[in-house]
Every structure is written in structure tokens, then in C-alpha cells.
Amino acid sequence: MLRHALELRRPGRYVGQFALLLYAVMTKRRLHLWEGNTRIDLVKTYAPVYDDGSLEDVLGDIVACVRKGDAAGFVHQYPVSEVHPLDQVNHFLALFREDAPGSASLSRAAASAFAETGPGSAAAEASGELSETGAGFSAAEPAAELSALPVDLFYKRLGCITVGTVCDGDCAIDALCTVGGHADRPEVRQALRERLAGALVDRVAEKSLQHAFIACAEFLPQDGGEAEGASA
Fold first, then answer.
1. How far apart, in whole angstroms, are the C-alpha atoms of residue 129 and residue 95?
2. What is the distance between the alpha carbons of residues 202 and 195, in angstroms, rounded to a whole number?
3. Could you list the mean pLDDT of each consecutive 10-residue stretch along the chain, which spans 232 residues?
4. What share of the chain is helix, strand, coil (3-state, %, to 5)?
5. Are 97 and 39 in contact (CB under 8 A)?
């Protein structure tokens, strides 16, 4: 975990859902991560001991997705699915609903796109409601067809808009800045990295956080020392 704290400090170094969970624990805020059409409450799922009922919601959610290029050299982003499984995730986006507190702070371009394709539009008519366990799509729609949708269209069907993030390795940190209400600047992202790394060092002895680290699949018990203590 201490090695992970060092990695967290490095600009542009890719981080995963444990960093998102750490942010939620550090700031005492509730954060949801979308994997396909499944919406996960990170604290409740991976570290329920920190959920004392007083967590405040952030402004939006975060989406895990898969970025991949095609034969023509264009890059596309896809939601997590059987076609694009979780182990291929290499990018994170921010996500907002129309009725979310953060929707008013969306950029003009994002807000314009949201008005055209968000709740109430033809694209969202049959979407259904968001839920902790997913759903929102018609059973008549083949899963393969849904998984082939670009990530923005996939979530527009749920009445949401995705907001892009940087593609320099800071995507998860950038998404945290967006949904956490922090300024979107390189120095702010680096400052957040420093805060996350410091919080991890301060809490490294907490068994609950060690178990969460393992559960997030970013730390394997067979790697030695800390893992053995965490799994005891």
C-alpha cells in the first residue's frame, strides 16, 4: 500500500477504483462508479465500516470505460460489458443526471448536448430509472447491441450525460475533480494526488482499508508482507 501511495503522487500515473474509494473515505462523501449499467456505491460495497450514515453525495458519478482504436485510427470509448470486460478498463469519465446538483455546472457544450439527448429526449424515452443494480434497458434489446454503443450513447439511454476527462493518465483524478466540485486544472489534479497519497499513508494500518485494497483487485495477497497482514 505504501508503494501505491508513491504511485498516486506521480503525475499522469494511471489509478483505478481504489483511488476513487480512497477519495470517498478521505472526504467523507458518497461516490458511485458505473460499470456498464451497474451503479456501485464504492464505500458501501468495499468499505462499509466507513459508511456511518453521514456521507454527503458528490455532484455526479464516475464511469469506467474502455478506450480502443479502430482500423482507421479513430479512438472509441465503450461501456463495460461482456464484449468489453472490466479487465480492459483504461479510462474514466464523469457522469451527471439532469436533476443532479452538479448539472448546473456542466460546460455550455455539455449542457447543450444534454438538452438534445438527455431526459425527455427521444434517446431517453425508454431508458427507465437509474438504480444501484443497473437496469434501465429494454429486455428486447440484445446485450451485444447495447455493448457496441459508444459510452456517451449508452448512458444517454439512461437519461445521463458523460463529461470527458483528460487522456494523459490523470483521467480518474480529473473525473474526481469534476464530480467533487474542484477546479479542473493540472495543479489542482496534482494537489489532489498528493492529498490521496497522504491519506493512504496515514491510514495504511487500518485493516478495513487494507481489505478494501485487496477487494478492489489492486493488491494481491501473494505479493507478500502487507497483503498477508491485510488478509488475516
1. 15
2. 10
3. 86 91 96 94 95 92 93 90 90 84 45 37 36 44 67 90 93 95 93 95 91 75 37 27
4. 45, 15, 40
5. no
